[in-house]
Design goal:
Distance between the termini: 50 Å
Shape: globular
Number of strands: 0
Helix content: over 70%
Structural class: mainly alpha
Largest sheet: none
Order of helices and strands: HHHHHHHHHHH
Radius of gyration: 16 Å
Number of helices: 11
Length: 183
């Protein structure tokens, strides 16, 4: 409960990118936690880290605060999932490459949460509608695949969920590309 409350407060006012009726950002972190719970057995620390995976990166909450409230194990997972400011400012393809390199060395629990994060993002990509140019969507999908490829191994059911979501997002983006080419 405390992690959920912190995530909701930290992401207050933030919205997921969507063409119509953007959802509160906290919906994403709960979707990630649900995927982790459904496809892994990471226990309480994994569930808490899944809920908090974007909190440090996207708010004023610090890793020290996460550690003080939820312990060293949760803070270590959140740290493994947090892009530093320099990575966040990179162009999309380079940012995804940096994420892949970092997550490849992370513990299996962090890799599972990252796969769940990317799965949620793939499921939500078609909701962005025309907010992103199709080329950016295709770059994002390729980058997400690169990140997940760096995570593969311990969680095949979660990997399968990502693969299905990425294939659906790819089909959507390619259909949109064909539609725009026909105009």
């Amino acid at each position: 409960m405390a992690a959920a409350a912190l995530a909701v407060a930290a992401h207050d006012g933030q919205r997921r990118k969507a063409e119509r009726d953007p959802a509160p950002y906290a919906v994403h972190v709960f979707a990630v936690a649900e995927l982790v719970a459904e496809h892994t057995d990471l226990g309480t620390d994994g569930a808490i880290a899944a809920v908090l995976h974007d909190t440090v990166e996207d708010s004023d909450v610090t890793l020290a605060e996460v550690e003080a409230r939820f312990g060293t194990a949760v803070a270590a997972l959140v740290a493994a999932l947090t892009d530093d400011g320099a990575v966040a400012r990179l162009p999309l393809a380079q940012r995804k490459a940096a994420q892949a390199a970092k997550i490849a060395a992370a513990p299996p629990a962090a890799r599972a949460i990252k796969i769940a994060d990317q799965t949620s993002n793939m499921r939500d990509l078609p909701l962005s509608g025309r907010l992103w140019p199709v080329a950016r969507c295709l770059t994002y999908i390729a980058g997400a695949r690169r990140v997940v490829d760096a995570c593969r191994g311990p969680f095949p059911a979660l990997e399968d969920a990502f693969d299905a979501a990425a294939a659906a997002a790819q089909s959507w983006a390619e259909a949109r590309e064909r539609e725009e080419s026909a105009l």
